[in-house]
């Protein structure tokens, strides 16, 4: 029996040769200098697995058969990550690879996929219920036809919500998906001459799931059947490479499903993930981390609930530290506390227990504390919040803004990445 995982991903898993050019994109009959080049996991599923693992999720990959030229790299890359390769089929051929030339907003992928798909030969797995069962959410790419549909049918049978991509309005995958992310390339191919609004309405009518239309750097449109169409502009970032942007967006949607996010929060989280992805190269070596995504989300108040914690922030509190610095979580011993974590005496939180706190600016394990609340991390998918406290004699007690959002989010990432929320100051 397979171990339980957070996310099951079915689709393309490749060995990607990427080349970042110096001084602009390729020009006919002109020399181009390669600035950086890598051979790393790629494909829609491979990239999504890397991003989800970086966000703290456990993942099982399934799909493309892995050949002998790709396998060593793949196994080495994921050896220290929470990515389960047990469902994969390892073969004696070279394996499926692609080649991508990149310069800023422009990229050209190359491969032999037309040849592979027209050969009539299978080069991917048939999904199995035992590999999907027990996961919290899935992602299913449509490229493997009946086998992609089979994965969707299994998810539907065992009540696993899944994200798909670029599935037309009349496709079974679209109708069954919890989220369908439709790219500009897909709408241009299937819905020529139609506006984005018309496409969303057409797709909304065919599913109870969430439809998201992405338009590259343009405004995103999203909505459900019977609901108004909503819009969101992508986060403004300095673009280094767009390779993996859509795959990262998909991974963000899977994370959102696992976290039980509302539609607005899910779209924003996925967009922030994608924004971070395009600001760096190579993405597999620099995937978005939870605290980075949360920090980018902090830059905008759009779609976030306005809450008032003025009765909490600034309060002096005291209590016990029951999980001191460097101790292990009582139920998850692999989780080590990088910060003192305790509770406030006499204050009851939404879960019926004492209010939990993170104690900052204290570099040794302690048993008790007295300090000042300088921020609140509000969990949107849980019944309790976490108070951010500093000792009374801390420099941050008189100057809370000196402790940055980034420092706070990075320190609490070890635990809060398993929840959805927002930091309030």
Can you list the strand order of the major beta sheet?
5-4-1-8-9-10-11-12-13
Distance between the termini: 46 Å
Strand residue content: 25-35%
Gyration radius over CA: 23 Å
Structural class: alpha/beta
* Main beta-sheet annotation: 9 strands, mixed
- Provide the helix percentage: 25-40%
Spans of at least 5 consecutive residues whose pLDDT stays below 50 are: none
Number of strands: 19
- What's the total helix number? 13
Mean pLDDT: 94
Shape: globular
Description:
By secondary structure, this protein is an alpha/beta fold. Helices cover 28% and strands 27% of the residues. Helix 9 (245-258) runs antiparallel to helix 10 (263-277), helix 10 packs across helix 11 (290-297) and helix 11 (290-297) packs across helix 13 (405-416).
Gist of the model:
The protein is α/β, with parallel strands linked by helices and 425 residues long.
Question: Keywords for this structure?
Answer:
425 residues; nine-stranded mixed beta sheet; alpha/beta
Topology, please?
Elements lengths: L6 E5 L2 E9 L10 E10 H12 L4 E5 L7 H8 L4 E2 L12 E7 L2 E5 L2 H6 L10 H4 L4 E4 L4 H13 L4 E4 L6 H5 L2 E4 L1 H7 L5 H9 L5 E6 L2 E6 L6 E3 L12 H14 L4 H15 L12 H8 L18 E8 L16 E9 L5 E6 L8 E12 L5 E7 L3 H4 L6 H12 L4 E4 L1
Parallel strand pairs: 1-4, 1-8, 2-6, 4-5, 8-9, 9-10, 10-11, 16-18
Antiparallel strand pairs: 2-3, 6-7, 11-12, 12-13, 14-15, 14-17, 15-16, 17-18, 17-19
Helix pairs in contact: 1-9, 9-10, 10-11, 11-13
């Amino acid at each position: 029996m397979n171990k339980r995982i957070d996310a099951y991903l079915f689709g393309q898993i490749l060995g990607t040769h990427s080349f970042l050019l110096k001084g602009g994109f390729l020009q006919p009959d002109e020399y181009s200098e390669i600035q950086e080049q890598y051979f790393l996991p790629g494909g829609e599923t491979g990239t999504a697995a890397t991003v989800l693992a970086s966000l703290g999720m456990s993942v099982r990959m399934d799909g493309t058969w892995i050949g002998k030229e790709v396998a060593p790299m793949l196994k080495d890359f994921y050896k220290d990550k929470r990515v389960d390769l047990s469902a994969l089929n390892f073969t004696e051929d070279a394996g499926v690879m692609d080649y991508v030339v990149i310069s800023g907003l422009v990229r050209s992928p190359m491969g032999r996929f037309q040849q592979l798909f027209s050969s009539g030969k299978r080069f991917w797995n048939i999904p199995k219920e035992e590999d999907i069962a027990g996961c919290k959410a899935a992602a299913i790419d449509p490229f493997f036809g009946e086998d992609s549909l089979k994965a969707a049918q299994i998810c539907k049978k065992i009540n696993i919500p899944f994200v798909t991509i670029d599935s037309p309005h009349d496709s079974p995958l679209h109708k069954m998906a919890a989220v369908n992310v439709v790219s500009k390339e897909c709408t241009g191919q299937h819905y020529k001459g139609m506006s984005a609004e018309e496409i969303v309405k057409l797709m909304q009518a065919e599913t109870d799931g969430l439809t998201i239309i992405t338009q590259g750097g343009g405004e995103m449109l999203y909505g459900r059947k019977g609901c108004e169409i909503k819009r969101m502009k992508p986060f403004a970032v300095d673009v280094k490479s767009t390779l993996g942007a859509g795959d990262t967006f998909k991974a963000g949607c899977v994370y959102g499903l696992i976290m039980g996010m509302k539609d607005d929060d899910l779209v924003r989280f996925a967009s922030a993930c994608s924004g971070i992805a395009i600001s760096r190269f190579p993405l597999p070596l620099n995937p978005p981390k939870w605290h980075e995504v949360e920090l980018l989300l902090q830059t905008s108040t759009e779609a976030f609930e306005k809450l008032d914690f003025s009765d909490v922030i600034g309060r002096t509190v005291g209590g016990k530290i029951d999980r001191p610095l460097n101790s292990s979580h009582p139920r998850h011993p692999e989780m080590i506390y990088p910060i003192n974590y305790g509770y406030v005496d006499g204050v009851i939180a939404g879960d019926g227990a004492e209010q939990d706190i993170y104690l900052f600016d204290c570099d040794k394990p302690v048993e008790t504390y007295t300090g000042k609340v300088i921020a609140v991390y509000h969990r949107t998918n849980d019944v309790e919040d976490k108070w951010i406290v500093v000792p009374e004699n801390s420099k941050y007690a008189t100057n809370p803004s000196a402790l940055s959002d980034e420092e706070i989010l990075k320190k609490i990432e070890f635990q809060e990445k398993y929840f959805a929320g927002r930091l309030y100051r």
